[in-house]
């Protein structure tokens, strides 16, 4: 095992421990500080990011093997891709239930609430990236709903700017399932 891979494993285990610790803090039903929100967000984003990267790589390899007609490899890759999808679904469901059950109800400040709705929208968007059919449409709908909640409260300029960027990135992913992100909605 090379040094880079060992470092990656250590980092991944550290992130998982950090996520578990922050999850316990979130379940205390108290408003998180900015630092605590960032630790929770970064921990989950990194764990999910590794799974999303794995999924994209597996999907790419699967398509290449399909084009070669290599059915044995396609079957193996597909099984592993489904395992990664299952893990990714569980992680996203975990953070979304924490957001809904503990973090949003405990948020009194507008910035905190917007932060968690944006996070919720992100994790539904991640699900929409690999789901199919009705599940994809449902995830995209929930993502749009969460992002739209962020548009209406009085926001700090920095959060407003982040939402502008998020909507532009969201539209570019083409996971809206027919939705057109209209800027006039944002402006009204």
The value of Rg in angstroms is 18 Å
Secondary-structure-derived class: mainly alpha
Overall number of structural domains: 2
Distance between the termini: 56 Å
Q: How large a portion of the residues is in β-strands, by DSSP E? A: under 5%
CATH 2nd-level architecture of the largest domain: Up-down Bundle
**Which homologous superfamily in CATH is the superfamily of the largest domain?**
14-3-3 domain
Helix-strand string: HHHHHHH
The CATH class label of the largest domain is Mainly Alpha
Largest sheet descriptor: none
The overall pLDDT, averaged over residues, is 80
Description:
The chain is mainly α. It has 2 domains: 1-25 and 32-106, Delta-Endotoxin, domain 1 (Up-down Bundle); 108-188. The chain has 7 helices and no strands. It has helices at 3-26, 34-68, 71-106, 110-130, 133-151, 157-173, 183-187. The longest helix has 36 residues, at 71-106. The chain is globular and about 55 Å long. Mean pLDDT is 80; it is low at 171-188.
The gist of it:
By secondary structure, this protein is an all-alpha fold.
Keyword list:
single chain, 188 residues, mainly alpha, Delta-Endotoxin, domain 1, 2 domains, 7 helices, 84% helix, globular, disordered C terminus
């Amino acid at each position: 095992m090379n040094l880079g891979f060992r470092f990656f494993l250590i980092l991944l285990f550290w992130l998982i421990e950090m996520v578990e610790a922050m999850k316990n803090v979130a379940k205390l039903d108290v408003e998180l500080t900015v630092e605590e929100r960032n630790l929770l967000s970064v921990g989950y984003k990194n764990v999910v990011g590794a799974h999303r990267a794995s999924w994209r790589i597996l999907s790419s390899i699967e398509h290449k093997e399909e084009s070669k007609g290599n059915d044995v490899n396609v079957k193996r890759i597909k099984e592993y891709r489904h395992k990664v999808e299952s893990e990714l679904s569980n992680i996203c469901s975990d953070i979304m239930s924490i957001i809904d059950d503990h973090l949003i109800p405990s948020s009194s400040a507008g910035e905190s609430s917007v932060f968690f709705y944006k996070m919720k929208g992100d994790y539904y968007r991640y699900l929409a990236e690999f789901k199919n059919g009705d599940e994809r449409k449902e995830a995209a709908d929930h993502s749009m709903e969460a992002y739209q909640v962020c548009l209406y409260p009085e926001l700090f300029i920095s959060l407003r700017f982040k939402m502008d960027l998020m909507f532009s990135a969201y539209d570019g992913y083409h996971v809206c399932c027919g939705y057109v992100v209209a800027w006039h909605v944002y402006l009204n």
